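3.2 Worked example (two chains)
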Amino acid sequence: MRSGPQNKRLWATLAGKDAALARLAAQTAKREDPHIDQRVALTDGAAALQERVQQHFPTFTLVLDFIHADEKLWDVANSLFGETAAPRTPWVENQSLDLLSGRVPQVITELRRLASLAETTTTQRTVLTQVANYCERNPAYMHYDQYLAAGWPIASGVIEGACRHLVKDRCELSGMRWTKTGVEALLGLRAVAENDDWEAYRRFFQQQRQQRLYGVPEPAPATLESQALADPEPTLQASAPWIVQSCISFLSCSSTSASERTCEGCTRFCW
């Protein structure tokens, strides 16, 4: 059984593909290690995106997302047989099996053969030619038999799902309108939460706020050893005023001794 994605990280931006890929390259560089000998990048068949990915990740093996290729076969089947015809499914299954078995040239040959038949309509011929051209443009990224044997992913479903969950489910609700600044901030926070980085972000925010307001870094937290050696019952200095706080139950707190830190019926500590 194939395992799911491990150590998945989510991030989204509206700044464009180059900005997203530059950040991804920087994050990938931080995780480089001599023991890593297999590097894979999944994309659709858009030539411009493939070129960008190869520029940012020259040592990665580029894989054409199988789902995109399979969708092209369904486009052909719908054109040849009709969207509700029973022969569609077995035809797509046979062609998909050829793709997964590394027989991309055979699939292209079959598409060209069907396009050359006299009974093929102009619309069908157009679809067949487009899909054949698509496969001929991407054979270097369609060695699915080798990818599967190596245990590599061949489909970007986890990425498509993240796009829906991280972006669409939050930003495309009924009646929503966004500014670019607002949605960038929101996507950043959603990524922090989804990556389980909220506590680290909270500490970072505190440090930045301390520096901005007071011009000095936030004091480092006390070590466990220093906390253990500290006086467990510090004495109150006479000159230090005792702060009187209102209780949650709207009772007034009048305690003035260190041993009486809560009021009767009150669940709030007064320090």
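3.2.1 Second chain
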Amino acid sequence: MLKAIGRAPVPLAGGVMAPSRAHTGARSAGAWERGWRWLLVAVVACLLAAACTSQQSERPTGTSRPAGVPTQRDYWPTAGWRTAPPAEVGMDPKVLAVLDTNVAYHPQLRSLLVVRHGYLVYERYWNGDAGTGQDAFSVTKSFTAALVGIALRDHHLNSLDQTVGELLAAHLPPTADPRLAKVTVQQLLTMRSGLAGDDPSLAGDPTLAEAMVRSRDWVRHILGRKLVAKPGASFAYSSASSHLLSAIVADSSGKSTLAFARSRLFAPLGIHTEHAFQPVEVADPSRAAEQAYERAKVAWPTDPQGYHTGFGGLKLPARDLAKLGYLYLNGGRWDGVQLIPASYVRASTQRQSQPPPGGRLDGYGYQWWVTSERGHPSFLALGFGGQFLQVIPDLDLVVVITSDAANHREDAQNLVGEAIIPAITD
């Protein structure tokens, strides 16, 4: 259910902002997603790179970890995060305490979590608590990408070279652009499908998202579009591509995207979604429906055919968002089980596509943005209005920031470089 298209400031996709190198309050690359409440379409995906062009054909089994990540953990947060004093995990409590001062300059904040060496060392909430669901907006895209990797591991997908024509044949309209049937899963993951971009902050056309939402069959509507570029040739941020990935996960696994996630991702991580709110997205939801979404601890809307929105709308508590970052920090391995192929995780968090020039993010992996933070390689899942899930592997660090998107401020991520990294002592 989407807030009415056409009502003023109702974004249509997941937004992306520059990391802390940009100390401006400017709106990020994607200032138009308002998840379920504002609208849909998230903005955080573009991956693919020469270094991994053959990655999709590989069915990886390795378990290698990024530098700085321990090979053994003394516990896994499946049943819940353990806390630790900052000094016990190599952080200066006095420097970290600067956060308590600096957050006053970010009234949009709803939650801020810092996980170091697997322990929760800083946790604050505004207008809620640890049980409050957070609207992830385009952070949803990174969850969708994780499910693609799991589908590959489970042999529901043979490779990332499989095509739309093979996997979504039943949805292709007779008049479909013949090139679209040849678009691969990897090209969808990397935002190089040839579909037009739908995020205006990245030179996309927001009316495309509006047309999708108002259509009776979103997947068929997307597949009825004409491509604007040769598949694989160029990057264009398309939330429609992320939604096709959700449909591919569902059709290939024989389960809804949420049901597949529940058994293969959420349950192993200890994320409880048994009572998830699953409204059908509509352009003009009732106020009662909007309020039900706002109250929900866990939610994931669907399109009219029941496909969960692959680009945005997922709602989880902040501690659960941190678990996805921790899974990727550990190379896709969780408590002795390789949930996502290690090489898929590596490819996901390396630059596979180059966003348009002028941006402050270095590249895009498989639905993760790739950058550096104060000289440290980093990858981020970003959502409109200040939603951040940031991982800095060589510091063994995960940070979750969620915000009230109504404030249209996305500068809270600056706190990572201002106070969190400087507090690290080892």
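3.3 Remarks
The chain has one domain: 35-423.
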